[in-house]
Amino acid sequence: QVQLVESGGGLVQPGGSLRLSCAASGFAFSYYAMRWYRQAPGKERVLVATITTSGGSTNYADSVKGRFAISRDNAKNTLYLQMNSLKPEDTAVYYCNAGQYYGGTYVSDYWGQGTQVTVSS
Description:
This protein has no helices and eleven strands. The chain is mainly β. Strand 5 and strand 6 (58-60) form a beta hairpin.
């Protein structure tokens, strides 16, 4: 059974930090590129960060660049998102995603259930 289980969300004040985790099981984690998405209430799901299979290359949305860091530990089948200098506009449900690249095109395979992050004073 394929599973992606996010954890680490919660309530944090502006300027604070939070680390999200995504525990993978039931598939060959190290062969999949991974992504974090987020979805705010009433809005579409948007891409936050990407990472290659080995962790050798990462990319970020402009809105989080310099504040967030995506990483992975293939030995632990776990994906992470370190979030620093959090802003109210970061409030959303954060989703872990596994997929593959076909040329330059990313094809999504699996989604986690999401974890809520709320940034508020």
